[in-house]
Amino acid sequence: MSKTSWVLSVLLLVVLAAAPAGAGEADEASTEILRDTLRSNKKALVAVNLALSDEEARAFWPVYDRYQAELTIVGDRLLQVIDDYTRTFGSTTDDEAHKLVGIYLAVQRDRVALLQAYVEPFAEVLPGRTLMRFYQIENKIHTVMLYELAASIPVIAQ
């Protein structure tokens, strides 16, 4: 896929996920829209940008589906941490903030562990360059998601 097509695919994802930034219900709605958009369009974005042969696709998609199911669990944990934080934003105590940081870092650690755990299963069904491209696509999609989430998460006051 050309760079232009990739950019258009990512822009489509951003446009579909965008919602007015605000507090409370608007943030929750934005998070839900982002979650639903990613879940419904991510596989299509990967498919379009990976351009697998029929043989590669037959071997890849079952591994991808298992990976994505596990990644969704980790992603839901991240969204729960964000929800917990935004729900108590104005009244978060030092102890609660410390606990949330620990949970957030545990979620990030689990995401990286999952990415590492799937390198070999993906490497068994994809050539090295395609494997690298897949992880690049995953990283780009994840970065867009984090960017959208960051726009709706208020920074805690000191």
Written overview of the protein:
This protein is mostly helical and 158 residues long. The protein has one domain (3-151). The protein is built from 6 helices and no strands. α1 runs antiparallel to α2, α1 packs parallel to α6 and α3 (54-87) packs antiparallel against α4. Mean pLDDT is 83; it is low at 11-23.
Extended strand count: 0
- Termini distance? 46 Å
Q: Radius of gyration over alpha carbons?
A: 17 Å
Count of separate DSSP helical elements: 6
Mean pLDDT: 83
The count of domains is 1
> What gross morphology would you assign?
elongated
Largest sheet: none
Low-confidence stretches: 11-23
Proportion in helices: over 70%
Quickly describe the structure:
The protein is mainly α.
SSE map:
Layout: H1 3-17, H2 25-50, H3 54-87, H4 94-117, H5 119-123, H6 128-151
What brief labels describe this structure?
single chain, 158 residues, mainly alpha, 6 helices, elongated
